[in-house]
Design brief:
Blueprint: H1 3-6, E1 8-12, E2 17-21, E3 26-31, E4 34-37, H2 40-48, H3 55-65, H4 72-85, E5 89-93, H5 94-101
């Protein structure tokens, strides 16, 4: 994996909420005036996007929880990139994120 990509630290945008829909019995991402229904894999990926874990750490955790896949890294990155383009998630490079959190 590209080191620049591995250091990305994704987090949910303040305008979205990750929730479980009891009526549909499935996860969803709420955003102003809309909802994005998720599958369980997408839900788990977004649970790990807490602004504390780098993408490499998220992928390592997912590889423990899901069956091996040759395309997992690419699929996760594409999923997150689509959400970033919609501004549902934000990300910073690891070093920048650490500097922003320092007093």
């Amino acid at each position: 994996m590209n080191p620049e990509v591995a250091g990305i630290v994704p987090k949910l945008s303040p305008k979205v909420r990750l929730r479980w829909d009891n009526v549909r019995n499935r996860p969803m991402l709420l955003y102003p005036e809309g909802v994005l229904l998720l599958n369980l894999t997408g839900y788990r990926i977004l649970q790990l996007c807490n602004g504390q874990r780098a993408l490499a750490d998220i992928l390592a955790e997912l590889q423990k929880e899901f069956p091996p896949s040759d395309t997992m890294k690419r699929d996760v990155l594409e999923f997150l990139e689509r959400l970033r383009q919609k501004r549902f998630i934000l990300w910073e490079e690891g070093e920048q994120a650490e500097k922003a959190e320092s007093p």
